[in-house]
Amino acid sequence: MTDDAAKRAPQGTMIEIQGVSKWFGDFQALKNVSLSVGKGEKFVVCGPSGSGKSTMIRLINRLERHESGRIMVDGIEVADDVKAIEAIRREVGMVFQSFNLFPHLTVLENLMLAPVWVRKAPKKEAEEIARQLLARVRIPEQADKYPGQLSGGQQQRVAIARALAMRPKVMLFDEPTSALDPEMIKEVLDVMVELAQEGMTMVVVTHEMGFARTVADCIVFMDQGEIVETGAPKDFFAAPKTDRARLFLSQILGH
Amino acid sequence: MSAVLRRTPALPGPLEWARVNLFSSVPNALLTLLSLYLLWKYVPPFVSWALLDAVWQAPSSKACREAAGAGACWAFIGEKHRFILFGTYPFEEHWRPGVSILLFLALYAVSAMRRFWTPWLVLAWLAGLTLIGMLMWGGVFGLRYVENERWGGLVLTLLLATFGIAFAFPLSIVLALGRRSEMPVVRAVCVIYIELIRGVPLISMLFMASVMMPLFLPSGVTVDKLLRAQTALILFAAAYLAEVVRGGLQAIPRGQYEAAEALGLSFAKRTALVILPQALKISIPPLVNTFIGLFKDTSLVVIIGLFDLLLALKTALNEPAWSGIGVEAYLFASLVYFVFCYAMSQYSQRLERDLARGPTARALKDT
Fold this sequence. Notes:
The complex is a heterodimer. Chain A is an alpha/beta fold. Chain A is built from 10 helices and 10 strands. A 6-stranded mixed sheet of chain A has the order 6-7-8-3-9-10, with helices on both faces. In chain A, strands 2-1-4-5 form a 4-stranded antiparallel sheet, with helices on both faces. In chain A, helix 7 links the parallel strand 7 (170-174) and strand 8. In chain A, helix 4 packs parallel to helix 6. The longest helix of chain A is centred in the C-terminal third of the chain and has 16 residues, at 182-197. Chain B has a domain at 74-89 and 146-212 and 222-366: MetI-like fold (Orthogonal Bundle), CATH 1.10.3720.10. In chain B, 71% of the residues lie in helices and 1% in strands. In chain B, helix 10 packs across helix 11 and helix 11 crosses helix 13 (267-282). Chain B is globular. The interface between A and B is medium-sized, with 34 and 27 residues.
């Protein structure tokens, strides 16, 4: 697998997951999972609910703790060391299904919080970058509103901008469009496609197969805590190798 | 649909208002009539006792009774208000606690205004409290030294309440965070502390502070009685406040913690910048509830002989010249307490409204 990654991404590996297992009590959420994401690569992770895909990407920035195996992010091992975890989190942006914007801060303050307090950026500079990012996600006029005043699609775009404000090397997306009304999904996906085209390394858990076809370098199909299949989108969609993948695809593309 | 359900529109006016609000059904009408009867029976006699027949000036309670008879004897308050407000503080130096009370009120007023919520406010408090300390103790700038055994009355109540809240509140936040900590020892210590203190009446804590604590101190070391009572009040209030703060912390959705973590904020920063601002905001009503309780609980220090507002009042009542007065004095004390507590309650409601900013409710629903 590492050899594949080397072929796909000549600049080197960004995320390396090796033989990772994770239990919630007696339930094994991940079973000996290995995955390698090269710099600049876009991975789309899909699979039925409960397959462990969210858990896997939450391990990358230590929102969940793995019990065995090894995870490296940009050369730093994800382990119990708090300083290392904070260093990784500075480099890894995350977008959640439920946005998780800070409701007591304005949109602009949401974007400035981490650069000012974590990166120690001067306020003025942080504000300038924040405004640029809001323009990039096409909501510059919402800067002084509170998250509660925005639509779901706008909130998710603010959440993407908030993660980008830290100038991360990797962006993780945990079902970014699942909580959105259908008419708002496109505005969020458009921003993500643009981000992909600019060369960001991305790991995206999503059921948006159109997005996967457009931007993914690699599709990862998971079921019951295992990675069942990995492959280029055109192979995966045209000729899934396993029955489980075939069944899954027929279910989500069938209607 | 709703047009059918609605009553036929009628002329707006007091009669219609009364019909809808006071006489909408038979039980409602009965309750209205009963309330009116009780108001008629008790309000006019009270007004004539408290105002119309009251005696405003008299040298003693006997003179009061001879002067008018049936009315309230406010002359007692007129004669004794200085003793009630300032306790046993030397009479000719009463301006000092007087100015201290005004300083307290000024500090409260400034702190209530959100535009002054800057680091300067802390300095203003430190300066204000230093000034109050200098005024009350004296011994500098030619002021006569007054030991704090002689402090009393309203100024003592304000001192105990202010320091009580100022120290108990931060301590309670530490305790609440500790109780939710993942470190077992920290959590156990906080749980034991909170449960122990909440399981004990304040009176027994004050007794312990005044009687038992000196037994444990090495001989020769004495801690001032006022300081001991203050410490007991702070420790007591902190346990209650900690549970209020914990309630607020528990209401914050998991996603807020995760978003702050994912941005690389350290524990201290995510707590201070993301979690506490939201948790404390939703805790305002129960917090103020506890603050008001603490303010009134300061009156319990009388049992260890501190001369607060209520004890000063009781002492004044013991004077033979004013025998037979009681209701008036306690009404006055109630009024003083009420003014402070009502101000706190009103302020908290305004603060809640200011911080609510309408859309926040929607934000919580959406996330």
